[in-house]
Amino acid sequence: MTSRGAGAHTLRLILGDQLNPLHCWFAQPDPDVVYVLMEVRQETDYVLHHAQKILAIFAAMRDFARHLRESGHRVRYVAIDNPSNRQDVTQNLAALMAHYGAAELAYQQPDEWRVSEGLRAWGALQTFSVQEVDSEHFYTSRDEVARFFGPRKKWLMETFYRHMRQRHGVLMDASGAPAGGRWNFDHDNRKPWPGEPPLPPDARPAHDHRALWETVRQAGVQSFGNPQADQFRWPLNRAQALAWLDHFIQHTLPNFGAYEDAMSAGNPRLFHSQLSFALNTKMLHPDELVRRAQAAYETGHAPLAAVEGFIRQILGWREYVRGVYWAHMPGYETRNALGHKRPLPAWFWTGQTAMRCMRDAIGNSLENAYAHHIQRLMVIGNFALLAGLDPAAVHRWYLGVYIDAFEWVELPNTVGMSQFADGGMLGTKPYVSSASYIDRMSDYCRACPYDRKQKTGDRACPFNALYWDFFARHQSRLEDNARLALVYQRWNGLPEDARTTLRDQAALTLDRLDRL
Ligand code: FAD
Ligand code: DLZ
Ligand code: SF4
């Protein structure tokens, strides 16, 4: 194709979570193709975002544009403070199509329903050709999980995961059996972390993005959380992401499994990979992580339980929740099966609560835009569900706060897995616990002003009475669930006055939610 000078035949849109330099689009430069990246208020403002999430996306997008230019591609980068920026994806595209006299627009399949639908609806009205292409990232297509489960009512992740292991030949013996004779090593992976083995060194890259942060602020973008613009730690391109993956496989993976569910005050990372931002922005392909982890097992570097646990998250959960998202959008974001309505307490935005577990998990989140899975599920999510917080408000908080939060993965995890607001599609029972689980898996309770053992009184751990109150409130809906038989046996076996005392304590706790 010949170059049109300042014009171009085709514009190709790259969204902020599509930073994959290995996409076939970039195989060779074409002078008739202009790549378009844009920083827009439409994307910074759809929810109140953590400062680090905005900064990381913008810095990574800028780095990607630089990489494309250096590789000989034509790039149009619309910065947040560019006076001609209309701050809206399709409005910017319309202006740029006219500017370049382009005949064709292409975009990679977006991962969020909101953006996907916006582009599809707008594209259908245009006189030029509009093409959607694969993002070349996931193992499965959007509707594959739904097709796999068909009319089945319960979508068991485990069933899908085994299918994926077989289909992709991951951790399978030559005989067709799962490596080690078992599909699931979860049972070996539930240890608290007593301070040993030592944590891996922190080799994450550090960047100084004070100037970019100033630009974001000046542009009026609202945010919360610590921007850490002077010592920002997220991988911002594929080379940095690969280096971080190497480090994880080498130093961290061997202990990933055993301490996967552990929590420790002041140690937000423990043995987790922190690769979710690099994965979700497509700097890395999930198969790269899976194959590297599998090789670590095959060479004897990491035990099977650790490798299986890690692979399950990526080959299993990650693809599965994406399928759940596409099967239920739109509408999944407003599910509220338990009718929960309470607003978030103010300390969700400050971390200022006396509850040590919540203070640490929310504090981490505000400081680092990160908390690991069990903090998200069994501390913050657990409390939100027990306290009956509005799942849509909880969803918006999670979508805004985490560096890796994109709706396709955040929403099923929050509304489905964590808040049971879809009525139990994802989880066979609600993920709730009293203080005993948190105490077993962490060092939080030891230093908490609340007493993990007390159920009533001023010093009683709020989780305890709320736990029983939750099951009492939802007895008619949950009592028939076979996995909750023991819980209801205990509840129904309590004397009437003990049940009343617990429910009164829960009512008092809910009355002073903002002051816990
Ligand atoms: P690791 O523990 O090292 O796990 C490795 C990888 O496995 C992760 O990077 C991630 O890609 C994948 N993974 C693990 N668990 C899940 C899961 N449940 N669903 C999908 N992928 C998974 N993950 C996100 O990527 N974005 C989100 O917005 C998000 N929101 C969540 C909200 C709630 C309420 C809960 C309970 C979980 C959420 N998760 C989300 C899943 C999980 O907590 C994060 O993927 C993980 O904490 C990211 O940290 P890591 O990279 O250190 O993960
Ligand atoms: C998350 C995010 C933010 C904060 N800003 C931008 C942006 O300015 N431009 C952009 O292209 N993408 C951004 N993103 C990522 C998008 O929200 C993401 O690409 C869509 O939600 C599709 O998943
Ligand atoms: Fe959390 Fe209760 Fe333990 Fe305190 S005692 S850390 S509030 S579980």
The biggest beta sheet reads: 5 strands, parallel
Cross-sheet strand order for the largest sheet? 4-2-1-5-6
Count of DSSP H/I helices:
20
Low-confidence spans: pLDDT under 50, at least 5 residues?
none
The backbone outline, from C-alpha atoms, is globular
Using only C-alpha atoms, the radius of gyration works out to 24 Å
Tally of extended strands? Answer: 7
Enumerate the distinct ligands. Answer: flavin-adenine dinucleotide, ligand DLZ, iron/sulfur cluster
Residue-averaged pLDDT, rounded?
A: 96
Helix content: 40-55%
Broad structural category:
mainly alpha
Features:
binds iron/sulfur cluster, binds ligand DLZ, mainly alpha, 516 residues, two-stranded parallel ribbon, binds flavin-adenine dinucleotide, 46% helix, five-stranded parallel β-sheet, globular
